[in-house]
Write a structure and sequence with these properties.
The protein contains 22 helices and 20 strands. It is α/β, with parallel strands linked by helices. The protein is globular, with a radius of gyration of 25 Å. The N terminus is likely disordered.
Length: 601
């Protein structure tokens, strides 16, 4: 048995002789090796031990042991978001497998390529309520792009290859491989000379030139155009920036789209939606042409759907045909990869601009489309009239200020992972992202506990990058056991906990829109309200992770600087007042005109 060599599928050298029988588990692992997998986030159990033993025999793949299966799939998710490559997780049968359901649903809603592998009871016990038997393919069918129950060891090479094709092509998403224990042990000689049947329901069709020219015509006739860009633009940030350079059209992004266009650019309107900026929502409301690129008109973006972009012609470009017209009917639509569409549009714009004489100021040809200065001025007036602001509380730390300070000290270059809640939106509103794949957040599902394990995956995917988990005390508690993984792996993950001793978003909604009875959102110890409970510094100490607590605004800069400079992992427990609220908030069923804004009150 020789050492394997990782290269392209054509040059891959197996550690097995071509005619050498090997276990199904070894075939599975070699299939992963051939796909370029270097990390698997796997939690072992009886039904997956053969696969773990096969990984241990591999010199190309390393298993990272999470402390909970959900942490494993969230880490695989963070790995995929940060790198653009599929994340892989592995669990045993029964409760181990059901513990990754939320992670599968999360990846499905946010279009993240994940291959989830689960052990299953032996074939002869299936359907007999055997110990830890769960019909996982039936449970996950609605929330996966595709799933497999392996019933023949000789199908493993084909299944693994096809799983990665499906996970990464068209609109990305999760794929499940459920493999019975007896098949993992069965001996076979694999046939690697197979090509997957392209079960791709979202092919990357080349956009028709006539449609692209029609879009250019609509842009040229528009007086108030706006780009509405989402997660579907993650792989075409350069093309989008070139398009804006050619047209001068302002850009509003979704939560998933933060970073695909620099928040620091003068033409950035930042995030739109119920937690978005006033200028972004104003621009969409006033627009006469809405260029919707890689988006799905989510309710958290549109608010009252009938009132969203009510005066605009809508151009919708998305790779998934199911999204076209699902929530908002477009005037013109193209089902294709946004990257291909923008490349085509940019060529047309550049060709039109090349007819002009180049100037000393602009050596790169620009299009002959000029966005009205009156439209730019109108939007700028909204920025000036409704700047992002927040309430202050004496010496207490305003959470928004903490994010601004973090942005300043990292120059907007950190990979920011978040849990779900107020802290998630404070980070979205005040961290000035400049690059794609630097904002990792559970957007569609809103899964608390996502931030810490996602940061773990991002740190492994991007060694050398500054990775920061911006978390709330409620979300952090849901995955706090992953501190052990981060310590053992010595991952340089920095953790900023916004600790208000409550479920902040629940508290705020209960206080502002309910009867004020928020007792069920209090996370501290009611009998000792003067003490911080639980004490996260003790958790950090138990895992040998440096940690500190900060309470005063004047001490925050030094505390963050120390966190950033400390080698390896670090936890900063930052106490923020419960009264600090998420502002720029559109209430349910409202429009941007109903939004609460943030002046000191």
């Amino acid at each position: 048995m020789s050492e394997p060599s990782l290269g392209s599928p054509e040059t891959f050298v197996s550690r097995f002789a071509a005619d050498e029988p090997r276990k199904g588990s070894d075939i599975l692992v070699e299939g992963l090796e051939r796909e370029g997998v270097s990390h698997v986030f796997g939690y072992p159990g009886g039904a997956s031990l053969e696969i773990h033993e096969a990984i241990a025999r591999s010199s190309l793949i390393r298993n990272v042991l999470p402390r909970h299966e959900q942490g494993g799939i969230f880490a695989a998710d963070g790995y995929a978001r940060a790198s653009g490559r599929p994340g892989v997780c592995l669990t045993s049968a029964g409760p181990g497998a059901t513990n990754i359901i939320s992670g599968i649903a999360n990846a499905n809603l946010d279009s993240i390529p994940i291959v989830a592998i689960t052990g299953q009871v032996p074939r002869k016990l299936m359907g007999k309520d055997a110990f830890q038997e769960v019909p996982l393919t039936e449970i996950t069918r609605p929330i996966t792009k595709f799933n497999y129950l392996v019933l023949d060891v000789e199908e493993i090479p084909f299944i693994v290859k096809e799983a990665f094709v499906i996970a990464t092509s068209g609109r990305p998403g999760p794929v499940l491989i459920d493999i019975p224990r007896d098949i993992q042990k069965e001996m076979a000689i694999p046939n690697w000379n197979i090509k997957p049947i392209m079960l791709n329901r979202n092919p990357s069709r080349l956009p028709e030139k006539v449609l692209l020219e029609e879009i250019v015509r609509l842009i040229s006739e528009s007086k108030r155009p706006v780009v509405y860009a989402g997660g579907g633009c993650m792989n075409c940030s350069e093309e989008l920036r070139r398009f804006v350079e050619l047209t001068g059209i302002p850009v509003a992004t979704t939560l998933m789209g933060l970073g695909i266009f620099p928040c620091t650019d003068d033409l950035s309107l930042r995030m739109l939606g119920i937690h978005g900026t006033i200028q972004a929502n104003y621009a969409v409301d006033r627009s006469d042409l809405l260029l919707a690129f890689g988006v799905r008109f989510d309710d958290r973006v549109t608010g009252k759907i009938e009132a969203f972009a009510k005066n605009a012609k809508i151009v919708h470009i998305d790779i998934d045909p199911a999204e076209i017209g699902k929530n908002k009917k477009p005037h013109l639509s193209i089902c294709t990869d946004v990257k291909l569409a923008l490349e085509g549009i940019n060529r047309i714009l550049e060709k039109n601009g090349a007819k002009q004489e180049p100037t000393a100021e602009k050596e790169i040809p620009v299009s002959n489309i000029v966005v009205s200065s009156a439209w730019r001025k109108e939007i700028d007036e909204q920025k000036e009239k409704y700047p992002q602001s927040y309430r202050t509380f004496g010496e207490a730390i305003p959470p928004q200020y903490a994010i601004q300070l973090l942005d300043e000290l990292t120059n907007g270059d950190a990979i920011i992972c978040t849990g779900v809640g107020q802290h998630q939106m404070w980070a979205a509103q005040y961290y000035m992202h400049k690059n794609p794949r630097h904002r990792l957040s559970s957007s569609g599902l809103g899964a608390m506990g996502f931030g810490l394990p996602a940061a773990m995956g991002a740190a492994l995917a991007k060694p050398g990058a500054m990775v920061i988990d911006v978390d709330g005390d409620g979300s952090f508690l849901m995955s706090i056991q992953e501190l052990a993984t981060i310590r053992v792996e010595n991952l340089p993950v920095k953790i900023m906990v916004f600790n208000n001793q409550c479920l902040g978003m629940v508290y705020q909604y209960g206080y502002e829109y309910g009867d004020g009875n928020s007792m069920h959102s209090y996370m501290g110890n009611p009998s000792e309200k003067d003490k911080v409970f639980p004490d996260f510094l003790m958790f950090a100490k138990a895992c040998n992770i440096p940690a500190a607590r900060v309470r005063k605004k004047g001490e925050l800069r030094e505390a963050i600087e120390k966190m950033l400079k400390t080698p390896g992992p670090y936890l900063l427990d930052m106490m923020v007042p419960q009264e600090a609220q998420l502002l720029q908030l559109i209430p349910d069923g409202g429009t941007f005109k109903d939004a609460t804004t943030g002046a000191d009150q």
